[in-house]
Design a protein that fits this description.
With 136 residues, the protein is of the alpha+beta class. The protein contains three helices and four strands.
Length: 136
């Protein structure tokens, strides 16, 4: 993906081949690595850049909730329970959005995904319906 301010993101996705299922965010001062499976990792590492090179400054391990009555379909999916708890808590409080991931965050994510699909030329039938409604 290309951004307006000369930043970019490189993504590699396959529906046919098994990949490493991890991702790394690289910047001018270091990198953050999300270990496999990146959709719900339990290990994140921070590497900082200095004159000597990269140094692993922090490695965090996260505990997942346990004791569920039923199993999960995907590795580490029980970690998504934190999202479910956040939504349930917001609804119980009568909120229309979660403070941890509000409407602005959702809108940014949606715009990034829309732009990614535009750049790789992926369009779904509902995209045409949405585009037509926005012209009204």
């Amino acid at each position: 993906m290309r951004y307006d301010d000369k930043r970019h993101a490189t993504l590699s996705i396959s529906f046919y081949a098994e990949g490493p299922r991890e991702f790394t965010i690289v910047g001018t001062k270091g990198r953050i690595r999300f270990d496999s499976p990146s959709h719900c990792t339990d290990t994140v590492s921070l590497w900082t850049q200095d004159e000597q090179g990269l140094t692993n400054t922090v490695q965090s391990k996260f505990a997942f909730p346990t004791g569920f009555r039923y199993g999960f379909h995907f590795v580490n999916s029980q970690g998504l329970m934190y999202e479910i708890d956040g939504v349930t808590s917001a609804l119980d409080q009568g909120l229309l959005e979660c403070p941890e991931y509000d409407w602005e965050d959702i809108s940014i994510t949606a715009r990034i995904m829309d732009e990614w699909r535009r750049q790789v030329k992926i369009a779904y039938p509902q995209d045409r319906v949405a585009a037509n409604k926005s012209k009204l």
